[in-house]
Every structure is written in C-alpha cells, then in structure tokens.
Design goal:
Elements (H helix, E strand, L loop, with lengths): L2 H37 L6 H81 L7
Helix pairs in contact: 1-2
C-alpha cells in the first residue's frame, strides 16, 4: 500500500474512531439525561447536575480510552515478546552453527597436524629433512 493510501486509510480510520467516541459520548449523555428526567429530580443548582452529567460522560469516555490503550499495550507487549523469542532462537541457532564450525575447524587442524607430522617423519627417515638443532 502506498504512503498516500495508508495515510488516507489512517485518516479515515482516525475519523471513524472519533465519530465512534462522539457517538458513545452522546449516547451516555442521553442516558444520563433520561435518568435525570425519570427521577424528576429538582435541584436548585442546575449547574451542579449539568456538571455531574458532564463528569459522568467524561469518566465513561476516559474508561473507554483506558481500555483501548490497554488493548494496544497488550498487543505491543505480545509483539515484543514474540520478537524477543525469535531473536533468542536466532541467536541460539547462530551459537550452535558457530560451535559446530569451531569443532569442524579443530578437527581439520588436527588432521592437518597429523599430516604434517607424517610428512616430517617421512622426510627425516629419508634424510632430507633439516635436523632440529
């Protein structure tokens, strides 16, 4: 997907999320207003009730935001754990292959050392090798 397409999708997605939040807030406001009407609660301080309703709506919206952010955090933590596991497996595999490579090189070195000893012994027996002195 191109950057413009992704940005467009992201903008639409963000707008949709904003509309969902606004819809949620409006539904809560309606709910609390209906509750107020049903109770026929008369208070001399209308501002207190309006503030109470606004705070209840805000609390519910914030709870939803916290829930959304918790889901994102959980997803990020699970992704991080998955990546860490993959990296650990890769490192273990690398250590194993390098250990095997070291063993192979040690074996090759031992074989070459034995070949050199054999050639040196052969040369000494034929008298063509210089003597250590």
């Amino acid at each position: 997907m191109s950057n413009d397409g992704f940005r467009g999708y992201r903008t639409i997605s963000q707008h949709l999320n904003d509309l969902k939040k606004e819809n949620f807030s409006l539904k809560l406001r309606i709910y609390f207003l209906e509750e107020k009407i049903q109770q026929k609660y008369e208070d001399s301080s209308d501002d207190v009730l309006k503030r109470d309703i606004a705070l209840k709506v805000e609390v519910e919206s914030l709870k939803k935001d916290v829930e959304d952010k918790q889901q994102l955090l959980d997803k990020a933590l699970s992704t991080e754990a998955e990546l860490a596991r993959g990296e650990a497996e890769r490192m273990t595999s690398l250590v194993d292959s390098e250990s095997q490579r070291c063993l192979d090189l040690e074996m090759e070195m031992a074989v070459k050392t034995e070949e050199c000893r054999g050639l040196l012994l052969q040369c000494r027996q034929q008298g063509s090798a210089p003597r250590d002195g």
